[in-house]
Each structure stands twice: as structure tokens, then as C-alpha cells.
Amino acid sequence: MSEQPKQQIERLRDELNRHNYNYYVLNTPEISDRDFDMMMKELERLEKEYPEYADPLSPTQRVGSDINKAFTQHVHQRPMLSLGNTYSIEEVDDFVTRTRDALMGEDFTIIGEMKYDGTSISLTYEHGKLVRAVTRGDGERGDVVTDNVKTIKSVPLRLQGTGWPDEFEIRGEIVLPWIEFDRLNAEREFNEEPLFANPRNAASGTLKMQNSAEVARRGLDAVFYYLLGDNLPFDNHYDNMMAAKEWGFKVTPVMKPLHGIDDVDKFIEHWDTARKELPMATDGLVFKVNNLRQQLNLGYTAKSPRWAIAYKFQAERALTQLQHVSFEVGRMGIVTPVANLDPVLLSGTIVKRASLHNESIIRTLDIHDHDMLYVEKGGEIIPKVTGVDVKARAPEAKPIEFVTHCPVCGTPLVRIEGEAAWMCTNKEGCAPQICGRLEHFVGRRMMNIEGIGEEIVVILFRNGWVKSPADLYTLKRYSQDMMRLPGMGPRTVERILDGIEASKSVPFERVVYALSIPYVGETVAKKLARAVRDIDTLMEADIETLTSIDDIGPRIAESITEYFNNPVNRDMVEHLRAAGLRMSMPEEDESSRTSLLEGKTIVISGTFSRHSRDEYKEMIERNGGKNASGISKKTDFVLAGENMGPAKLEKARSLNVPIINEDEFLAMITQ
Ligand code: IVH
Fold it and tell me: Is the sign of the CA dihedral 101, 104, 105, 106 positive or negative?
């Protein structure tokens, strides 16, 4: 007999979980990516066909969603403490001596581990299932980020093996591996979005994102180092972590039992350099007394355990001479000063350039011509100028002056209000700005025109064939000329033209992003497109209309109106429209509209489990109702989820406004 759907679904889930574990935790995949994808697709299909077997912990649920959900807070059952830390080996040795004295001569083992540089997380498992992921917050309470953590493939949603306590907590560090960090920053640099200073900031920023689909894309990982609970399997830290490894967790791979000061010192000496080879950022080492009873005896200070200490690595610093400061013009016209340095070796790479970000940094550090500069690369990949060796300065050296005119086109720079940045306003005539906008337009997350990258953009521009994104759509007429360029055979040209053709079916929201409207990044573009639905509405929208859209503030609104007040931009849009680009969102399915909530004003409060707030908002509107933010006499009812705010509850009660839950609401609109 063939398998029942339920068994089939369960089998696929088990297999996919196992392959995830092999791939993401053990780094030893057993099947090809393609086979994995096919199994996943099959499971998705079955789950769609048999929604009665849905499971939020299914491997299909790791993809995240576009839905925005504000975080709720959770009080840690056991507070999340920090560690006492030091930069000195002597102080670590003192810690060992102190521990020996406090344990009154009893034998003890210390476990040496890496200190990963990310953001801490606490996971709670009940009956072998992940129930909650909470950030450290203030140590007492943190944000519930379960949906985001579920997208991290090395985090087990269900445990494997046996012997786990019914309820326990495991703590670890959410990290962004170097390779993902570099990829993310390269992408941000291209989009002219501010770069993350280090993987720690990137990891914590990512974890707090509202859009878990974006989190899934970023490639976070998690390493675990602390197991807490009432019925742990062993009486010592090391064995408990090894058990956690058996249950499917990625446990810190470096965990070395150490006996005495000599061992500890050797461990430090080894990892001070060896850590640079690791795939993730580390900022030190942690030493923990292994035995749990001894841990208890040693106890805690107000902030940290007495049974552990962190040794922090010194940030690496080099001294090198400034050759000159160059001023570089970006896509939006912002001029960024860059320190060009005598090449110097720092944390294994040769550093030649360091961003000085803006004028105020040059002023604060008081940098002069040919100064000797301290360059650091702590957890950071982008070197940072952190200081000046003033003693080494030549007496005649002059302070670095910020340019007053655009270094490329000569236009006088203007100061952006409220910011430290200077800008070249010659949007249509300044080559790096034009090329920057073109590069952005063809980018993967914008129009995704294959075959055109930075170099080709410059070639197309220099030859006078393309000055504005709209010119790409008439590029065909130069195909003969293009083929004559060195290294540009017919195949390359064909690929470019095909890519341009294919871009005509890119969705409207990405077209909005591709336009390079200042302050309109990817998320804002999406929100705008979904709210206005077509380009004409966007072009005509005034500040008031724009600011009434979620997350669009006055600054973005002003930037949009200013952009469309410029005839050059309007003209470009018209050309793009004529070329056949998508200038509206697809028609909504009118059959899903009803008037079941006609004339009703509804307030949404709390957090929901079946749909997100935004989805409920959309449902209200689709059924003819109006969503309002505050409760008043005019409110017909409150759609309340969990944790409705006490003030709102009180107000609803005092005004006799009915409160209904999500199930009641869903029943109401599915009559
Ligand atoms: S143990 C009560 N082990 O460092 C002790 N922490 O300053 C709990 N960290 O908040 C922490 N690697 O985010 C421990 N191997 C490791 C660690 C580690 C990184 C972080 C963690 C903690 C902070 C302590």
C-alpha cells in the first residue's frame, strides 16, 4: 500500500531536518542541493494540499515572511548576565588562583572556549520543540524574535536524539559569518546604504528586523555555549554541551578542558593568532569552571558569575602615513572623503584605504597632510582611522580641507540639512552620479539586467549611448557599434539586450526602487508601491498623502515630491513607461472584496497568531471597514490579540466597545 499523506509529510520533514543538520551544523551534506530542493518542493506541495497537517516547526517554515510584526517582550526566567572581562593574561591567572582558593583546594577543571562576537540569544525548548527565542534585552527582559531565529537553518526546531529535559533553555550567540558579512556590505555599498561596522552590528540589526524573509536571506548562524534547566543530563558544563550537540545544536567547536594556569596561558597564546582563521568574528575567550556544583558554590556578583571570566583580544592597530585624502562622489551626489594610505599589514590583509565618512570626522581627528594615522580593525572588516600621531607631524603640515566643489564636475557643494554630508547637486551632469544611478538601476534587486555591471555601464556612458536608464531600452540601435568594442562579441551584446528585454517584466515595486529616489530604499519602495499601486498616483501624491502611508515620514515624502517635480525625472518615467516597464501593481482580485464591514471602524490591538497585524488591516479594508488607531466612541469593535495594552483595554471597557478575538473576527468575514 502506498504511504498515507500524513506519513509522507512526516517522513519528508524528518529527512529534510536531517539534511539541514548535516549541511548547516556538521558541514557534511549527504545529498545534492537539487535533491534537497526537490524534497522541499514536494513537502510544500503536500502541506498545501493537506493544510490539516500544518506545523509551524516544519522545515518549510524557515523561509520567513514579508509580514511585519512588532516584537513582544518576554521576561527571562533566569536573567541573562554578562561576564566579567579583562584584556590582561595576569588577570585571567588571578581568576584561576581566586577560584582555587574559593574551592578550598578541591580539584577543578576549567573549560576554555571562544567568545563569539555576535548578539546573544536564549532559546526555550519544551518537549523537544523550540517554543521561544528571546534576545538579551536588558538582561531581565528581551524581545521575542522566534520567527527570525527560525530562519537560521542550524537552529533545530525539533530536537533529535534522546535525553533532553522536558523544559530547558539554551543560550548562544547569533553571528553573521565573515563571508555573509562581506557579501551584505558589498551589496549595501552598491546600494549606497550605510555599511555595517562589524558582524556584531550586522547580526543584531538583522535579528531585530521586522521582515523575517529578509532575515532568511542574510545568512545568520548560531553557536551555543550554555545550557540551563532544572533537569540537565550531566553535572558539568562540558558534558551538557556535548549532549546538546547530540540533540542537534551547533555547539562552540572549541571547548578545551584546562587544568591550571599553564594550560590557560597556552590556550590564550594559541588562539590569539589562530582565531583569525575562524569563519566567524570572535572578540576573545571565555573560561568557565566546569562542575555545576562548584559553579553554584562560587556563585554570582550582581552582574556576572564568579565561575567564569572573559579574556578580550586586543583590537589590532597599525600606524601608517596618509598619502592624500580623495573625495568620491556617489550615486546620490554625496561626497565621501577617503584616506589613501601607505600600504600596511593589518589582521592579515593589506590596507590601503580607509573611509573617513564625512567632514566632521576629519575635523574631530584634526587630520593634517601626510599625518601618521592609527588604523584599526577590531571586529571590523573596513579599516577605521582612529587617531593621529601628532608628534610625528611636520611643522608645516596643513589641516585637511574638505573640498568646496565637486571633484569631478566642479559644481559647488551644498550641505545636506541636518547632516554632516556635502552633496554635489549636478544630478544630471555629474558622471559618477549618472553611472551610479545606472548601476543601481540594472542591479540584481532592482531591474536585474544581466550582462551589465559597473564596467559595462561606464563603457555605455562614455560612448554616449546611455545617459539615463531610459536609454537602455533604445540601446539596440547601437548593437553594431557595441560589437566592435574590444572584448564585446555578439554573444555579450545579445546577452545584454536579452537582459534589458527581460527587465520589462520586473514588478512595479522594484521599478520604484530602481529609480534612485533619494531615501527610497528597498523596503520603502515596496511600501510605496503597495500603497499607491501605480506610478501616476505616486507622481501626483502630495506630502500629506505620502506621510499617511505606513513608515513614510516627512523627509522621505519631501524627497519623493521633489524628485517628481523635476521634469527630467518625469520625462524619464514616461520613456520607461513607453518602453513597456511595469508601472502599476497587478489588479487586485475584486472577487475577494466584500462589504461585510461596511461603515465599521475597527481598532487592532495586541499580537496575533493566525495572521499579522498588517494582514488584519488589509482584511478590514478589503471587507469595507476602516482601521483606526485609537479607541473612541466611534469605534465599533476592537480586534484584540494577546497582550492588548492595559490602557486600551481600560478605554474599551469604559466606552463599552466590544472586544473580539481573531477567531471571532475571521468567522465574521468568512460568512
Ligand atoms: S557564557 C553567565 N560563553 O559574551 C555566562 N558567553 O559578556 C553566560 N559570549 O552575553 C555567557 N561567546 O553574548 C559565554 N562561549 C561563550 C560566549 C559568550 C560569546 C557572549 C555572550 C554574553 C557575553 C558575555
Answer: negative
- Report the separation in Å between the CA atom of 155 and the middle of ligand 1, taken as the mean of its atom positions: 18
Local confidence band at 1 (pLDDT 50, 70, 90 cut-offs): very low
d(CA 404, CA 65): 46
CB atoms within 10 A of CB 364: 8
Does the beta carbon of 287 lie inside 6 Å of ligand 1?
no
Question: Per-residue DSSP letters for 155-203?
Answer: S-SB--SS---SEEEEEEEEE--HHHHHHHHHHHHHTTPPPPSSHHHHH
**For residues 434 and 461, what is the distance between their CA atoms, to the nearest angstrom?**
8
pLDDT higher than threshold 80 for residue 395: yes
The alpha carbon of 286 and the centre of ligand 1 are apart by a number of angstroms equal to 7
Nearest CA, atom 3, ligand 1 = 225
Q: How is residue 354 annotated by DSSP?
A: E
Ligand 1 and 308: CB distance under 6 A: yes
User: Which residue carries 521586522 as its cell?
Assistant: 210
Q: Is 115 an active-site residue? A: yes
pLDDT given at position 369: 95
Catalytic annotation, pick one of 115, 288, 377, 384: 115
Q: Phi first, then psi: what are they for 317, rounded to 5°?
A: -135, 145
Q: pLDDT per residue over 522-560, tens digit each?
A: 878 988 998 999 999 999 999 999 998 877 888 899 999
* Ligand 1 mutation target, pool 119, 225, 256, 267, most atoms within 8 A of CB: 225
Whether pLDDT at 66 is above 60 = no
pLDDT tens-digit readout, 555-614? 899 999 999 999 999 999 999 999 999 999 987 666 778 889 999 999 998 877 777 777
Rounded Cα gap, residues 473 and 464, in angstroms: 14
- Pocket residue to mutate for ligand 1, from 95, 110, 115, most atoms within 8 A of Cβ: 115
